[in-house]
From TrEMBL, chain A:
Residues 259-358 form the Pyruvate:ferredoxin oxidoreductase core domain. CDD domains: TPP_PYR_PFOR_IOR-alpha_like. Signal peptide: none annotated. Residues 17-228 form the Pyruvate flavodoxin/ferredoxin oxidoreductase pyrimidine binding domain. InterPro entries: PFOR_II (IPR033412), Pyruvate:ferred/Flavod_OxRd (IPR050722), Pyrv_Fd/Flavodoxin_OxRdtase_N (IPR002880), THDP-binding (IPR029061), Transketo_C/PFOR_II (IPR009014). This is Pyruvate flavodoxin/ferredoxin oxidoreductase domain protein. Gene3D superfamilies: 3.40.50.920, 3.40.50.970. One of its GO terms (biological process) is response to oxidative stress.
From TrEMBL, chain B:
Residues 170-189 are annotated as: Disordered. Pfam families: TPP_enzyme_C. The keyword Oxidoreductase applies. It comes from Accumulibacter regalis. Coiled coil: none annotated. This is Thiamine pyrophosphate protein domain protein TPP-binding. Residues 171-184 have a biased composition (Low complexity). Keywords: Oxidoreductase.
């Protein structure tokens, strides 16, 4: 059914249709509306046979999820930013134990300085946690990916993180097609656990493993992600057969066939990038876009194939690997190994900084002219940075950096015009 | 195999031979049908109080749950010595997740059971969470308090050996005053733990007004079984805190484990009591009060108190703390004394 609704609400409806049995979460912006929506649905009886648990921290949220998933219940949680870091130890544990929990991450920056707005630093900090990580481009895809996520998680027995841009998607009202219960039931069978805490067949889960088998156990985690690499496109096809639309898969290609310049990105910014690319195409530029939907497992082959005939690649990412540059671009470069093309990393949109078509157009044009460096910070205010660097050069007690820089920018930045 | 003399009767104790009791009053351990939840072959040190406590507690819980029990276990000695891959001593469904999240994992198990029961996919299954004092009173305290506060249907058992034993005897917030650990030595003027620090989680559990809180020791195993059985007869959050001597960490002889546990109770150093809904309902009386020295001098962790010049003032403070417990928890039968 077509609906004009908030992204968070669309996701809550999707999760509800997947018949979750345990939902546990701890509030953090911009995730709150999803969990509140689910709470209302449990209360109203729209989701039946489901325990909704308010916990005292994200660490507890993931831990409750571990317990319930290991007891055979389909389990869901959601978080963002500081919350994801707070639960990190349990995030690794859930995947190490092979528990098919589904979690939404409403992508948000990580402090300090504390910042509630969108970027991808939170999810990418967990890229090696063993979770499958899918990135939604639109609210429709966020909704669809959650339905696919439960199926994927349960088939390979690994947890899945569905990442959607905080505020930009979670709080945006858009038209979405909400499937029927019959459709979802036809796609997603009841959860059949591979391992379960069951008094009639007792097992020990989470034993200590030494050097004699640890590598093998870890390799298995990798092997399962490689299975997921094959499964994800198949699930997208099955999804299309039931729901009638393209959603998910490993990557999304846009005007790549003859593209000399390929822009690689993840999440909602792909929309702005495509609009910019349309403009440039109209002006005769051979430019295309590769959207990464599955960040973990990373589709090396697809990325390589997409870049095969290009002359340059611009990886535009909402994350910063401090001390080297890009996070996503490191993976893209791995896919490019042996290909002769120019690679550019662009760090953009940190902490909610708007990524405009104007800036993108100038940026891509610069890349086409061969003037773009290896690492660019889009729309960085050099005055502010240089002023602070100068202050630190000249004054020992230069004070808290973020606060000083805000003062330099003035009241406009704080919104109190 | 070397010859081991078998003692059928203990002398100088208050234990009663099982065969003098009616069938239904006999201990769970005396029953051939007991589960052996924590089976032999594990790698605990000789005389480990934690292994003993866990075996009695979980077998009693299994009996009370008619064999339908799931356990969540914190990282620590109990976890490490019971499950060196690919072996396991556990005869029940058991999960170890992390050091500090066991209460929350148990909450999740209980939630799943509730849903599965409601759907008719599962019968009644009960949940026990267990951890050491470090996993309970320190790193796992947030999750524990959350589980209490929500009154989740979990029995949490803490095996208190007064320190982080698995990592080599460091201080925890349950390390008693004046006891030496590897990490009490660098802080403060004394090698032992400072006075006026630490926390007594049973009292904090009572402050949550959960249905049931009890303490026990491995000296009174019938009392332990009784408390576990009682706790299993209730619903909601329940907490049992068991004092379990650790020969390695305490610097004590393996054969003194029971004796030390008994002395902890008989001196008043460790109060043994029950509370319901936050109110004290009973305490195990001291049978033959002992001065704290009797307890302290058997343990090398207190050896620094008994040097050439005994630390009389410190010992007096420990005696005062024991006396305070005796007053606070009514540990002395007024008439008997
Ligand atoms: C997050 C985390 N921090 C530290 C450790 C290291 N660690 C493992 S067991 C343990 C001590 C356990 O002490 P306690 O809970 O009292 O149990 P015991 O071994 O004394 O029975 C520590 C510090 C860990 N496993 N995880
Ligand atoms: S160190 Fe202590 S608690 Fe750990 S196994 Fe040995 S005796 Fe038991
Ligand atoms: Mg301990």
């Amino acid at each position: 059914m077509l609906k004009q609704t908030e992204g968070s609400h669309a996701v809550a409806e999707a999760v509800g249709l997947c018949r979750p049995e345990v939902i546990c979460a701890y509030p953090i912006s911009p995730q709150t509306h999803i969990v509140e929506g689910l709470g209302e649905m449990v209360k109203a009886g729209e989701i039946q046979d489901c325990e909704f648990i308010n916990v005292e921290s994200e660490f507890a949220a993931m831990s409750v999820a571990i317990g319930s998933s290991a007891t055979g219940a389909r389990t869901y949680t959601a978080t963002a930013s500081q919350g994801l870091l707070f639960m990190a130890e349990a995030v690794y544990n859930a995947s190490g134990l092979g528990l098919p929990i589904v979690m939404t991450v409403a992508n948000r920056a990580i402090g300090a300085p504390i910042n509630i707005w969108n970027d991808h630093t939170d999810a990418l900090s967990q890229r090696d946690s063993g979770w499958i990580q899918l990135f939604a481009e639109t609210n429709q895809e966020a909704l669809d990916l959650h339905i696919q996520a439960f199926k994927l998680a349960e088939e390979v027995s690994l947890p899945v993180m569905v990442c959607m841009d905080g505020f930009i998607l979670t709080h945006a009202y858009e038209r979405v097609d909400v499937p029927t219960q019959e459709q979802v039931d036809a796609f997603l069978p009841p959860y059949e656990p591979r391992q379960v805490l069951d008094p009639t067949d007792p097992v020990s889960i989470g034993a200590m493993v030494g050097p004699e088998a640890f590598s093998e156990v870890r390799y298995l985690a990798h092997a399962k992600q490689m299975q997921a690499l094959e499964l994800i496109p198949r699930l997208a096809e099955q999804f299309k057969a039931v729901f009638g639309r393209d959603s998910g898969g490993l990557t999304h290609s846009y005007l790549l066939d003859d593209a000399e310049t390929v822009v690689v990105a993840m999440g909602s910014v792909l929309g702005t990038i495509k609009d910019t690319v349309d403009e440039m195409r109209a002006a005769g530029e051979k430019i295309g876009v590769l959207g990464i939907t599955s960040y973990r497992p990373f589709p090396l082959d697809n990325v390589r194939a997409a870049l095969q005939n290009a002359q340059r690649v611009v990886v535009l990412e909402k994350s910063l690997a401090v001390g080297i540059g890009g996070v996503l671009s490191t993976d893209v470069r791995m896919a490019m190994s042996g290909l002769q093309l120019h690679g550019h990393t662009v760090v953009a949109g940190l902490g909610g900084r708007a990524i405009t078509r104007k800036s993108l157009r100038a940026l891509f044009a610069k890349a086409v002219r061969g003037e773009l460096g290896h690492l660019t910070f889009l729309d960085l205010d050099w005055n502010v940075v240089n002023k602070q660097l100068e202050r630190e050069r000249t004054t020992r007690r230069s004070g808290p950096a973020a606060e000083s820089m805000l003062r330099d920018i003035g009241v406009i930045a704080t919104g109190i015009v | 195999m070397s010859f081991q003399p078998v003692h059928f009767y203990q002398t100088g104790t208050f234990t009663v031979g099982n065969r003098l009791l009616a069938q239904e009053e006999r201990s769970v351990q005396a029953n051939m049908e007991r589960t052996n939840s924590l089976n032999s072959g594990h790698r605990a040190c000789q005389g480990c109080g934690e292994a003993l406590g866990a075996r009695y507690a979980i077998d009693a819980a299994m009996k009370a749950a008619s064999g339908r029990l799931i356990a969540a276990n914190a990282t620590g000695c109990l976890e490490v010595f019971s499950t060196p891959y690919p072996e396991t001593s556990w005869q029940i469904p058991w999960i170890h997740s992390l050091f500090g999240n066991t209460a929350a994992v148990a909450t999740g198990i209980a939630a799943a059971i509730k849903v599965k029961r409601h759907k008719g996919q599962m019968g009644d299954v009960r949940v026990v969470a267990q951890g050491g004092d470090g996993g309970t009173t320190d790193i796992g305290f947030g999750c524990l308090s959350g589980m209490f506060e929500r009154n989740d249907d979990v029995l949490y058992i803490c095996y208190d050996n007064g320190g982080y034993m698995n990592t080599g005897v460091q201080r925890s917030s349950a390390t008693p005053p004046a006891a030496r650990t590897a990490t009490t030595m660098p802080v403060g003027p004394e090698p032992g733990n400072a006075f006026g620090q630490g926390k007594f989680v049973p009292a904090i559990a009572m402050a949550h007004e959960i249905p049931y809180v009890a303490t026990a020791t491995v000296a009174d195993l019938r009392d332990l079984e009784y408390k576990v059985t009682k706790a299993m007869g209730m619903r909601g959050a329940r907490y049992i805190h068991i004092l379990v001597p650790c020969p390695l960490g305490w610097g004590a002889a393996s054969e003194d484990t029971i004796k030390l546990a008994r002395l902890a109770k008989e001196t008043g150093i460790f109060p043994v009591f029950e509370a319901e809904g936050g109110e004290l309902t009973s305490s195990l009386k001291i049978r033959r009060q002992q001065p704290v020295e009797e307890y302290l001098k058997l343990q090398k962790r207190y050896a620094h108190l008994f040097g050439k010049t005994p630390a009389v003032a410190t010992i007096a403070r420990l005696q005062a703390a024991a006396d305070k417990n005796i007053r606070k928890y009514g540990l002395l039968d007024q008439e008997a004394n």
